[in-house]
User: What shape does this take?
Amino acid sequence: MAPVSANEKNGMRLTFVGPPGSGKGTQAKIICGRWRIPQISTGDMLRSAKAQGRLPQDLIQKMDSGGLVPDEMVIAMIDERTQGLDCAPGYLLDGFPRTVPQAEALDEMLRRRDCGLDVALALEVPPELLIERAVLRRTDRKSGLIYHLKYNPPPADADLEQRKDDQERVVMDRVNTYHRMTADLLPYYEKQGILRRVNGVGLVEEVTARIMEALKTL
Ligand code: AP5
Assistant: This one.
């Protein structure tokens, strides 16, 4: 099959799957910028709901302690968000689905709209790198850009914040939650023939190049 150029990918619906700190958000921003499709991050949506006082206290505690919020809640969020006009040319889901019931609900939702998920891209990073990546992550409040104090230092004028769930102990809990709840998604998508595994270790640009390569031959 002839390689497809990035522009022709614009009707695509993708999801990035990977443990905390694997680089989903970093890479999603780059790919979405290139393809001009929206990045839809359930984590960002939940943090924004929390900042606006719209997230119940029990769910705030759930997130802050490294657990998952209920499937029905994120499924409803995605159902509504993906009907936005900006989603017509495709979109990239970052951190959704995270459980097999979420993946089944997404399939059903897309089936009702006569379409489907094109690619599930798994970013693979060994556990020993995940903790350092998450603990030293900082986000610029103004731009939303993600930095790393060691690997991708922020500019001097950045207005930095650290996520509450980026404390070392909580990151370890999130990694465990990933293996318990999310890793089952990989065989689910493998069976559908849409799983692409990408090595997430190396410079950000190197990982981006691998992702582009993995998406080229679809
Ligand atoms: P969410 O915000 O989705 O967090 P996550 O999946 O744990 O992923 P992270 O954001 O921690 O990491 P990332 O893979 O995006 O890495 P990043 O690019 O930032 O979810 C948060 C919480 O919300 C969940 O715990 C849950 O409670 C709830 N939630 C969300 N979705 C849900 C769902 N579907 N169902 C139920 N609950 C849900 O990179 C990390 C750091 O590494 C950065 O500092 C970055 O600069 C650096 N970095 C990136 N790439 C590289 C590289 N190649 N080399 C060196 N450093 C790098």
User: Anything to note?
Assistant: Residues 86 and 162 are 29 Å apart (CA to CA).
